[in-house]
Inverse folding.
């Protein structure tokens, strides 16, 4: 109990840096939540540029293009290959469609394999797939109406009408997932948490771990395992306090709370924070001076955040950075968020959580081993 | 009937090539103020750390309260209080909270602890400084805080490792009186120092160690009686000729003479009127001097005679 009590007494000496880093953290989260918050962003992101080369010029190809034009912007001028590459690179166009000659005839005959429209898109560009999906919906629906006895002109009109309603719904929900604040806001949270922990909890833990205090405690009648677990417990409690505040504020800013994915993200935050506590408790074994805490705060918080995909999306990191990042719990925190975003299965998300905990346990075990060794050696 | 509190047998501790403790033996009886006297680096702290199981040792046997001491003998550790050579306190905590923490490592009960902490503060005379942070205390007061942290839980065995290093004479006397009082109240004390005056003042049994070995032990008187040096005659005299130094050496009972910095030190073994023989020699030869006096041998002379080097010479 005395260790517990003393932990909080020492912690109270770090009030100032705690409040300061909390303010900085909240500032960053607020700024992050400001991004992507523009109200009609959805329409811009839905509407894509499409370059079309129509070699068929049949009523079917014209119908298709007309339909695509209701959602997107169509370029039908003739471009050089280089121009096309540029347009796609600068995302002026998401797809380059080539409609082969005889496409209309093959579609109308309805027998055998219909001729394929060749669609070129940037790999990884979501919008490219969206356009292809739009194309498929139109062609399938039209074909179905025709099977039901409608002429092409009638079928074309019917499909366009029904798709107009549906696509609006689809597109909007698609955009909501894309730009949802909850993911941007919560992605930055580990950085906030790490700076808080390293600036307030870490120096306290380090103080208990200084060589002299450690030795002095080692000769007392309190087993060191008991003391260490008290310290870990106290750190965990403080950390839970921090994440409650951070989750609450982040939820307010992202205007979402108590949804299923919110709960998953909250679990991810909790797992990450416990991993961070294990790392911090382990650091107490290395006889680092508490005065070094601010330096460690910057090194750990920045490198973990950068390499772990907190500041920059993981897929934008270079090969080496990504390779190193994979060993950090922050990476698996972000990865879990990505998987939640893309609606992965619970097992896939759980894996990310387990890897974080595994990292924490490994560091903790190393710390305890080093600690045991050090006490005997330096006395 | 005496009871052995600490027993160290054939203790060997090596740091790589350096042999810090070389078949060291020591036995401490209940109620003693046991002085461990030795120059810097002689192995005092190493001995203490081994007794406390802070260090692994290469060979030997250590018993505390009659039982083998191990790192996990928390029941034995409960009865020991330690004041380390280096001050170990929390900079962030007040004087009161520091003592409360270290006392709390042993005493769970809040009420008892409160009483003990207050008593410890009173004992070291820090009543006016309860709310002070260690950084605000002078060196002497900080040492007193360190002592209070070590003894607040009322241990039966108190180990103090050079508690008076870098302390002003006033604080030093306060500390020494305190140690004597702790002993009167029933605690057995182990006191390490390289200040022989202190050891002579408070210790009931003295062990002299050098280079990790037990070179002599006994009470202060026993130690002094064990050497051939019985009296030192000192003459403060300027520009003494070398031939007189040689002549003094030939006087009865004199076995060693040194002339340094205008001071003639004459070591005598036995004999009863040594000082008057010296005075006679100076008068017969018409020599003038400032002062002449006689001293009984000190622990330094004991150390010098046994090891061939002086304790004082090695003081940092
Ligand atoms: N961790 C260590 N590694 C290597 N050598 C050490 C270590 N600790 C002590 N020594 C050596 O062991 C010897 C005994 O040291 P010790 O600290 O026990 O002496 P001491 O009598 O307490 O001296 P002092 O009066 O300076 O405190 C010294 O020569 C010292 O250099
Ligand atoms: Mg020492």
């Amino acid at each position: 109990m005395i260790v517990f009590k003393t932990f909080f007494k020492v912690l109270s000496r770090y009030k100032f840096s705690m409040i300061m880093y909390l303010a900085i953290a909240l500032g960053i989260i607020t700024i992050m939540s400001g991004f992507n918050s523009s109200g009609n962003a959805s329409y811009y992101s839905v509407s894509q540029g499409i370059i079309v080369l129509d070699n068929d010029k049949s009523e079917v190809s014209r119908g298709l293009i007309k339909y695509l034009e209701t959602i997107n912007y169509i370029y039908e001028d003739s471009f050089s290959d280089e121009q096309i590459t540029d347009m796609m690179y600068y995302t002026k166009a998401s797809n380059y469609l080539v409609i082969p000659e005889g496409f209309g005839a093959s579609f109308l005959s309805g027998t055998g394999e219909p001729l394929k429209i060749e669609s070129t898109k940037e790999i990884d560009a979501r919008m490219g797939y969206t356009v292809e999906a739009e194309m498929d919906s139109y062609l399938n629906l039209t074909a179905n109406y025709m099977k039901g006895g409608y002429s092409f002109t009638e079928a074309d009109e019917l499909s366009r009408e029904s798709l107009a309603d549906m696509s609006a719904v689809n597109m909007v929900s698609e955009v909501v997932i894309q730009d949802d604040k909850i993911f941007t806001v919560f992605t930055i949270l580990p950085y906030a948490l790490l700076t808080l922990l390293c600036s307030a909890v870490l120096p306290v833990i380090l103080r208990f771990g200084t060589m002299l205090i450690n030795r002095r405690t080692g000769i007392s009648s309190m087993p060191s395992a008991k003391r260490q677990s008290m310290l870990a417990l106290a750190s965990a409690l403080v950390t839970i306090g921090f994440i409650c505040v951070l989750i609450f504020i982040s939820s307010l800013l992202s205007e979402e709370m108590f949804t299923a994915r919110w709960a998953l993200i909250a679990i991810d935050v909790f797992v990450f924070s416990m991993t961070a506590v294990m790392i911090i408790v382990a650091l107490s074994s290395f006889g680092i001076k508490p005065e070094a805490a601010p330096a460690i705060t910057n090194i750990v918080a920045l490198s973990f955040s950068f390499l772990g995909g907190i500041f920059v999306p993981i897929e934008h990191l270079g090969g080496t950075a990504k390779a190193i990042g994979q060993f950090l719990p922050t990476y698996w925190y972000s990865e879990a968020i990505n998987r939640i975003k893309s609606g992965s299965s619970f097992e896939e998300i759980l894996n990310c959580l387990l890897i974080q905990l595994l990292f924490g346990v490994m560091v903790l075990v190393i710390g305890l081993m080093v600690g045991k060794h050090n006490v005997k050696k330096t006395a | 009937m005496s009871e052995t509190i600490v027993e160290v047998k054939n203790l060997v501790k090596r740091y790589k090539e350096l042999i810090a403790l070389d078949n060291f033996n020591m036995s401490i009886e209940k109620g003693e103020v046991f002085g461990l006297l030795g120059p810097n680096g002689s192995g005092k702290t190493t001995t203490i750390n081994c007794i406390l199981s802070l260090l692994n040792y290469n060979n030997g046997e250590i018993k505390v309260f009659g039982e083998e001491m191990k790192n996990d003998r928390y029941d034995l550790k409960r009865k020991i209080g330690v004041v380390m050579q280096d001050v170990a306190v929390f900079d962030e905590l007040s004087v009161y909270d520091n003592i409360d923490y270290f006392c709390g490592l042993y005493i769970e009960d809040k009420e008892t602890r409160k009483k003990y902490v207050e008593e410890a503060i009173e004992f070291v005379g820090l009543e006016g400084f309860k709310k002070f942070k260690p950084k605000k205390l002078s060196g002497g007061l900080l040492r007193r805080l360190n002592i209070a942290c070590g003894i607040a839980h009322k241990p039966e065995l108190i180990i103090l490792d050079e508690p008076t290093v870098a302390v002003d004479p006033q604080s030093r006397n306060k500390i020494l009186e305190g140690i004597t009082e702790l002993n009167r109240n029933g605690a057995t004390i182990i006191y390490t120092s390289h200040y022989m005056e202190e050891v002579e003042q408070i210790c009931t049994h003295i062990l002299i160690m050098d280079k990790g070995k037990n070179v002599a032990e006994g009470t202060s008187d026993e130690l002094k009686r064990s050497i051939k040096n019985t009296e030192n005659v000192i003459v403060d005299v300027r520009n003494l000729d070398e031939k007189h130094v040689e002549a003094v050496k030939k006087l009865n009972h004199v076995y060693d003479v040194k002339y340094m910095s205008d001071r003639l030190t004459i070591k005598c073994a036995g004999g009863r009127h040594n000082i008057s023989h010296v005075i006679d020699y100076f008068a017969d030869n018409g020599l003038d001097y400032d002062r002449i006096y006689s001293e009984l041998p000190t622990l330094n002379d004991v150390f010098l005679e046994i090891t061939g080097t002086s304790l004082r010479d090695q003081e940092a």
In short: Chain B has a mean pLDDT of 91. The pocket of magnesium ion (ligand 2) is lined by residues B 44-45, 85, 161-162 (CB under 6 Å).
